[in-house]
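Our preliminary data section would be incomplete without showing what the modeling component actually yields. Below, a chain of 194 amino acids is followed by its predicted structure, encoded as tokens that our downstream tools consume directly.
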Amino acid sequence: MSQNIEIEFKNMLEKEEFDRLLTKFHLTPLDFFRQENHYFDTKDFSLKQKGCALRIREKNDKYEMTLKEPHPDGLLETNEILTQEYAQTLLNRGHIKDGIIKRQISELGINMNDLCYFGTLMTERAEIPYHGGLLVLDSSSYLNNKDYELEYEVSNRESGMAIFHQLLGEMKIPIRKTDNKVKRFYDELKRIHP
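Predicted structure:
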């Protein structure tokens, strides 16, 4: 189990902008790895209503459950490593075992038995150390949709924002309001299943 504060900046990209960033940073398909986010909430989206998100991330045959909650400096991430067998049990409507994530969800007033699996978002990701932070290029596919995103993960909000905005300016990429992946996933789910 681990907890950390996530400070990151995000910007949606057009495909052409994504391709320009690949060229700038000399990235090839070999620089990308695949990860899958499996999303959970209640049928009435109780977690989402509280600004929270619950996922299992599958990467390199490893599984990690993450609860994200609002925090004054960004998002509080609580992580638990899962076995493949336990992750598959949860994806097949199993129940979360006792632990910090279960305790925190219960403290939010959410009944654990109401949680259900909604679907998967698959991301091809490249990560680049950049001016003291981590620059991330994502191409994500979910619910017959595909999008492109630039993220910048930092430890200092002010300097990180300045560096991120400077890069966007250099690349002539407009600053766009960018929802996180789980919100984009649920918005698309709602659009196709009103």
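Residues 2-177 form a domain with the Hypothetical Protein Pfu-838710-001 fold (CATH 2.40.320.10). Strands lie at 2-13, 33-42, 53-59, 62-71, 74-82, 115-130, 133-142, 145-154. Preliminary results of this kind motivate Aim 1 of the renewal.
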